[in-house]
Amino acid sequence: MAFAHYLTVFGNRRVAAVLGLGFASGLPLALTAGSLQAWLTVAGLDIATIGYFALIGQPYTYKFLWSPLLDRFEPPWLGHRRGWLLITQLLLAAAIFAMSLIDPVQAPGLLALFGVGVAFLSASQDVAYDAYRTELLRDEERGAGAAVGVLGYRLAMLASGALALIAAEKWLGWPATYRLLAGVMAGMALITLLSPRLALPEAPKSAASLELKGFAAMLAGALLGYLCARYALALLGVPLEGKGWGLVYLVGEVALAGAFALWAARRTGFPALTGPLDEFISRRGAWMLLALIVLYKLGDAFAGSLTTAFLLRGMSFSQVEVGEVNKVFGLIATLVGALLGGLLMPRLGLWRALLLFGALQAVSNLMYWVLAISGKSYGLMVLAVGIENLCGGMGTTAFVALLMALCNPQFTATQFALLSALAAFGRVYVGPASGVLVDAFGWASFFLLTVLTALPGLILLIGLRAPIDALAASNQEVQPADG
């Protein structure tokens, strides 16, 4: 496609809808991550507790479990996908408003509970948005759609991240800031109502009763696995008290709950979930590719899990300084990195882009190590944030391209939800470990460890060159259907 023609694609209604809905998709994330972390830090909670608040993001990891239901059942209005978008957006506005009414010191558990609710609704909105975007855009619009989707998502993170930090310190305080953003979230419903309508798909092949029975069995299996893991660890004498042992319990509970949930889904019958899973797992090298999804951004996730707390508490920068540099300038650097990655990828190819950009995003974490050992320096903070976000943006571009290439067009919604949930695994579960490591070794050693954490993913990537090259070649031959 000629470059001039490529630019004209940005002006149509479908791509504009992806931009607006990308903003709606990105708005809640910071409110359960960086902005919430800043609120808790200013409120005076200890760093280990703040690290555990990262677990609020667990629904992003498990969204593939209920994504089949969003595929199978459709609200009877607004056409395909848009009904779920409208429902989740309105409920998100209500849940964010509820968070604003809670004192994090007096009721941290209640705040965490509503935070989990926001994350669940946000993850559900993401499932609907990813599927809607994939089905709406035509083949020649997907590049532009991906670009404006990232732009909308990052602009929303700017609003709920940097602008929220500045507004909270200068004018509103955190509760009023959350109330303001709840109003913005409610306004996103208008974007959904103005977006193009998709025709409803053909009647589902599986019975609704079978899908609901399978979903219920899956939840029961997950609960049984959780209880078995908890009591087994207790019988083995593993202490429940202590933050390090709490992480052992968490990993054991999640692993066994997931295994029992999948077993129950297969025994009872949950074809909307097991069909897409079986198709993916049947591919050659599937388990290695799944491991790569988890590991590729792991070092980046470690470094980013406590960056706001590091700059505020470890380096004693103000909320305004952190908002201006880490959020605003960091956003610009990320967008530049994403654009640069997109420009380089056609020349490099998918595998080489993944390797080069992955290495750069790992090495860029050393800039925070330099800042930690050098002491407070505004200029050095700007440099560290700029380099880390630039390289992270390049890595994200290649990584998203990999996720899209891995999806079978027959199972786009569920497989994309599965892969993106695995990608969120690192961001969610490194939080508790990050807090414990910082307490034990200090900030400088922590950032050195984040570089080492990135190496397994790069080593695995080197061994997967042949299947990734074959995957990229096969996707160039496939012409997706119009949305």
Automatic annotation (TrEMBL):
Keywords of this entry: Membrane, Transmembrane, Transmembrane helix, Transport
InterPro entries: AcetylCoA_trans_1-like, AmpG_permease/AT-1, MFS_dom, MFS_trans_sf
Transport found in the keyword field: yes
Membrane topology, as annotated: Multi-pass membrane protein
GO molecular function, one term: acetyl-CoA transmembrane transporter activity
Stored Pfam families: Acatn
Swiss-Prot/TrEMBL GO biological process terms: acetyl-CoA transmembrane transport
Transmembrane segments: 42-62, 83-102, 108-132, 144-168, 180-200, 212-233, 245-265, 286-308, 328-346, 353-372, 378-404, 416-437, 443-464
Domain Major facilitator superfamily (MFS) profile span(s) in chain numbering: 14-469
Compartments reported by the entry: Membrane
Lineage top rank: taxon: Bacteria
One GO location term (cellular component): membrane
Coarse class of the protein's main subcellular location: membrane
Name of the featured protein: MFS transporter, PAT family, beta-lactamase induction signal transducer AmpG
Lineage: Bacteria, Pseudomonadati, Pseudomonadota, Betaproteobacteria, Neisseriales
